[in-house]
Structure formats: C-alpha cells, structure tokens
Design a protein that fits this description.
InterPro entries: LRR_dom_sf. By secondary structure, this protein is of the alpha/beta class. The protein is 30% helix and 17% strand. α7 (193-201) packs parallel to α8 (219-226) and α12 runs parallel beside α13.
Length: 441
C-alpha cells in the first residue's frame, strides 16, 4: 500500500461483531530535523526555591507605626490603621498592639473584663506598661456599667499612667415637692475610702480630666486628695454649689474649666490658692463672670503664660494686659475687641482665634507685624465665610516666616490649641507621638 502509518493493521467495524487486530508496534518520533540554537532551548527544571523572608528591623517598624499614630485630620488615634497593621506579621502585631494600648477606654463591665483578660495574657506586662491615658465612664443608669471598684483596679494595673479621663453620671430620678429647677436629680454616692486608698497607692498621675454630671460634688476634692501632685486639671459638668472645705491642690500648672454655669471667685480661690505661683495656663470654655476673671488674673497674672476665652470683651482685654509674660492668647469664638491681641511686653508666641464677620482681623495683622517672638497663628473660619482681610493676614505671616494654620472645624481647632498635657518650653503646644515618650517618663 502507498500509505504507511506504522500500524500492522487497520480495522473498521460494520455490524454487531467487531474484530480487534493485535497491535504489533506503535512509535512516535519526537526528533526534529532542526536543532534550535542554544538560547532557544527551553529547559524544564525544578522551579527555584523562594528566598528566605527578610523582616524589617524593629526600629523601622516602630518608626512607621509611630508616624501614623495620629490621624492628620482629626488628631485622634488612628485605631483602624493600627488594627490593620497588627495583622501583617508577628513583629508588627506586637508593636501595633503596644501603640493601641497607649490609650484605653472603659465604658462597660464587658469592656473591663476584656481589658483584664488582655493584661493577664502572655503580653500582659508589655501592654500594661504601655498605657499612658485611661478613659473611664461610670454611668449609674447603665445596668452593666463600670463601677468604682473597677475604676480603682484599672488604675492600679497601669504603672505608667499619665492621664485619667473620668466621667460620672448620676442616677436620674424625679423629685416631688421641690421647685421645678430642682425636680430632676442625678444622685450618686461619693467614693468609698477603700477606693480612694487604692487610687492613692497606685501610679502618680500628672493629668486629670474630670466631668461630673451628678449632684454630688465630693468627687473632685476626693480625687485631688488622692493625687496631690497633679499638674494639669480639666474639670466640667455640673457647677459646684459650694466651696469644698478640704485642702486644695498646690501643684497645678494648667487649668481648663467647662462647667454649665460660672463658678464663684471663692471657688477659684480654693482651687488656685493665692500662695502658689505655679499656674501657667488657664482656659474657660464658658464665659466667666468678670469678677471671677479679674480675681484670678489679679492674683496669678504674673505667672500666666496662656489664656483661653470663648469671647473677649473690652473689660476682659483690659485685665489680660496685667499678664506681662503672656505667650499665648486664644479666643475660640468670633467676638473679640481689637485690644485683645495687643501685647506691649512683646512676649506673644501664638495667637489662636475664630474668624467671623465681627472678628478684628486687622488687629491680628498688626500683632503679626509687631510681635517680635510670634511663631504661629491658628484660625478656624466660620462656615461658608471668607473674610476680606484673610489674604492680607496670609501675606503678613508669610513675609515674617510665621506659621499660619487653619482648622477645618472647632473640634480640630481645640485639639490643635490644647495639644498634650505636658510642660513644654514653647507655644503652641503640639499633639505628637513624641510626647508619649515624655508621658511615660
């Protein structure tokens, strides 16, 4: 036959019976007539092994995480980013968890139990040593809330605690047979002696933020007795009705007040004894009475370096001029008299203000041109408002090398102004991760 296929026989089946011829020989030749060049030869071999994984040095990992600790817009801890970084690797997990534990918030019993479980785990010592800020909310209306015993135990577990942020809400009930203004009560019991003993024996905190939303006003004197060496105090909530009879703190360097109603000059005299000249910064979130404001500046104006007011009247500005060492002035609202920003002593380093239709921007421009030590101006502009003198202010700051910072809203403005509660040698105070190292001393 003219066709050769290398097979001994071919069989075709037509019908019910099929015959299969035995296969004698089958061969396929893979030899080609053309040998490829050496570079064209495809070599099939075992794939190369993956090189060993190299880890970044721990110092670099920490530098990456610390630089991302605060969200640049809100100046809050970027917890979502740190939580994601903790899933990268074992090395990143340890570093990220340590940063996450710098600030802890306890709102409920379940959160407190999770907190205890973490500190009693294999990384307990590392995590407890990292805590510098602790926020605790005691709400007597919450069935499974945080108790004062939990507060005391949590504080005792944080050996390097720098700042305690404590809010207390009383048990709400309606009283009958009393004037309408006194009908809604927020009752709460003062701290037990055992609780105060644990707090006093624990870490020596430097900063206390305390908001009392109860009708019991024994809490603050009790806490100040437990920590007599406090340097920074921020208090708010229900205004105290009477002056405490116990001794007041003697080491306060910074005071921030945000009561619902103005407190008396007698209360300020108790809070800031005349014999102590350590106070450097005082801030009022609510407009103080002129009598009280004048009393404070008459006795402490020589040492004050920073004053913050919601607005500034002509009378208040005239009293502010009694502060020869003033280095920072803050007017959070849009109402201020032009004399507010005049500083004959030339000591101002930072001006912070809200800019609206009634703001004397020209007075700020004059201060920028004349203040020899001015370093920065921080402003938050009223929504949908553009002051005609803003370009002039920007040019004046740029020509003198003064930093002009704008806040997106009042919340960011407050964080930019207050910074961290640590002593610094210049203004404005910053909120940076570097301050965490100072807090851990």
């Amino acid at each position: 036959m003219g066709l050769s296929v290398g097979v001994g026989a071919l069989c075709f089946a037509f019908g019910p019976s099929t015959y299969y011829a035995p296969v004698q020989h089958v061969s396929f030749s893979l030899v080609t007539k053309h040998l490829p060049a050496k570079d064209d030869v495809l070599t099939l071999s075992t794939p190369p092994t993956r090189p060993p994984r190299t880890s970044l040095p721990l110092e670099i990992v920490l530098a990456i995480l610390e630089s991302s600790y605060y969200d640049s817009d809100t100046l809050e801890v970027d917890r979502s980013l740190l939580a994601a970084c903790s899933l990268v690797s074992r090395e990143w997990s340890t570093a990220a968890q340590r940063l996450l534990f710098h600030e802890i918030t306890l709102r409920s019993q379940a959160g407190y139990e999770s907190f205890l479980a973490a500190l009693h785990g294999p990384k307990g010592n590392t995590l407890s040593d990292a805590i510098v800020r602790l926020r605790v909310i005691i709400d007597n209306n919450q069935p499974a809330g945080v108790s004062e015993d939990m507060l005391a135990n949590a504080v005792a577990l944080c050996p390097r605690l720098f700042e305690l942020d404590l809010s207390i809400y009383g048990f709400r009930q309606i009283r009958y047979g009393v004037p309408p203004s006194q009908r809604l009560a927020n009752d709460a019991c003062a701290f037990k002696e055992s609780t105060l003993a644990i707090l006093a024996a624990g870490p020596t905190i430097s900063s206390l933020k305390f908001n009392n939303w109860t009708d019991t006003h024994d809490f603050l004197p009790q806490l100040l007795g437990a920590w007599p060496l406090l340097e920074s105090l921020s208090i708010g909530g229900s205004a105290p009705r009477q002056v405490p009879t116990t001794a007041s703190p003697t080491m306060l360097r910074s005071l921030h007040m945000n009561f619902q109603h103005a407190v008396s000059a007698d209360y300020m005299e108790w809070l800031l004894p005349e014999s102590v000249d350590k106070i450097r910064s005082i801030a009022f979130a609510q407009d103080p009475s002129f009598r009280m404001f004048k009393h404070v500046l008459n006795h402490h104006g020589e040492t004050l370096e920073s004053i913050s007011l919601p607005d500034c009247t002509y009378d208040q500005a005239s009293v502010i001029r009694l502060c020869p060492n003033l280095r920072q002035i803050t007017v959070e609202g849009f109402q201020a008299t032009p004399t507010t920003f005049r500083n004959p002593a030339g000591s101002l380093e930072h001006i912070a203000l809200g800019i609206g239709k009634s703001t004397p921007v020209q007075a700020v421009i004059d201060a920028v041109k004349s203040a020899p030590h001015l370093r920065a101006v921080t402003a938050h502009v009223a929504k949908d408002y553009q002051h005609s003198l803003l370009p002039v202010l920007q040019f004046a700051c740029a020509s003198r090398g003064i930093e002009l910072r704008f806040a997106q809203d009042v919340h960011q403005f407050r964080k930019m102004i207050r910074g961290d509660s640590i002593a610094t040698s210049s203004y404005p105070h910053e909120k940076t991760y570097t301050n965490i190292y100072a807090m851990r001393r």
